[in-house]
Amino acid sequence: MTRELQAPADPGIRIRTELRPAEPAAASAAIGIELRDVNLSYGDNHVLHDISMDVDEKRVTALIGPSGCGKSTLLRCLNRMNDLIESARTTGSVKIKGQDIYGPGTDVIAVRRRVGMVFQKSNPFPKSIFDNVVYGLRIGGVRDRTALEAAAEKSLSLAALWDEVKDRLQASALSLSGGQQQRLCIARAIAVEPEILLMDEPCSALDPIATLKIEELIYSLKERYTIVIVTHNLQQAARVSDKTAFFWLGRLVEYGVTSDMFTNPREKLTEDYITGRFG
Amino acid sequence: MKATSAVDLRRRAVSRAVEVFCAASVVLALVPLGMILFFVLRQGLPALNGAFFTEMPKPVGEPGGGMANAMVGTLILIGIAALAAVPVGIACGVYLTEYRRARLSTAARFSADVLNGVPSIVIGIFAYQAAVVPFRRFTALAGGLALGVMMLPLIIRTTEELLGLVPPSYREGSLALGATRARAVWTVVLPAALPGIVTGVLVALARVAGETAPLLFTSFNNQFWSTRLDQEIASLTVQVYTYANSPYEDWHRQAWAGATVLIASVLFFSLLSRFATRRLERMHRGTA
Known about the structure:
By secondary structure, chain A is of the alpha/beta class.
């Protein structure tokens, strides 16, 4: 499978990376994240090729594509989590509100506070529910108990979890169900009031009902946050996102308004992928 | 399909033989422990009484007396050892996990393994040269440090092993929330590994509490009550050693009683470590 994908790209496939005019409905959106010529390699393995795209502010953008296409890697570029991998080299620029997070002198810690992340597998810390939610605030230096409590209630409410856990905030986070744990992780990410929320296949380990809850949550959160979600589930991309970006072999093949892309893809490759002919 | 073909019989016989051999080995392995317990308790229990725990050693010829000073001495010695070895050992284990492939890590890992294999008498002689000779006196401090050196490799390796078992997703989660590396280790990774590390520390303590050789030339022995760190101090193991080597019947009985206390304390540490682990684990699992 991997070998097949790494075969030299068919010269017949033209990969368009120019930006597409947004549809009128989405036109009012400002640019949340501006990527220009982002390239990333792990050692000799070139994973992302010249990615340029504008992510709309306070909209949901879905990144789709077959396994190994670089969509998760791209997501991790947006909060510099790839820095944790020694061999990773990134070039190009990723601007958030005009500030290049790969520019010299960037405070990575500050970037990660502005760009929250929810992982594929929910990863609540082995601490109480309360301690999980306020973790980010505490490491940011907030000590005031009432402020922490208020923030916990607010974030848990936004993550649609408050009613389920308000009577047992001191219980271990690991006592929650899988779906609740994932919503707790979302609450934990939004407690530090980021501008952007990155989600890396947040529902892949969840049952359909828990998935539905998270999707509703994503829908409600886009009022406040710019959301970028990686998903393998095309229906999910169609349901939750305003725009979709299709990746293949580390290149951005097509990027546009979700409803257009699913009904009328511009590229043959996109069409093949969303109709299930490969991937 | 015949149920009793020759192959079938052979297979069953081999299986049975292996089973019997394994079971016999298990029994054989239990024999030494059983015999130790039997002999020590048979001789030691009758010699144990309240006075043994509360009284000081009596001069030769006077019956009775106890090892109160030696028990307190042992506690002080392992206290010093823990204070010295636990912070250093855990910090070292953290370094080894964080900088897995650094050259310093390879060196530290190797020396921890070597140190673990160094005979305790050699560690005693080293501590004598390093901490007794310069001050020209035997001290509790020197004894505690010798025991600490023995604990160090145990703590380093358990810490490293247990930190390695913490899911990387905890760390990632913490870093993604804007934690520094040190912060992530201190607030999430280390607490997650804590139950196991506590067990490792207790096991290490139980092990060094039973050491005699590192103490012979460091904390020496003391027939009198002393809690001073800059003086020689009594310890259960050295006391047992001294008494067992003596020609006096009464001292032999005291030595057996001392051995009983030592075994009981090892048992106590083992139980304590299990208890500590369970409680902490339950807290982590979320049933608390």
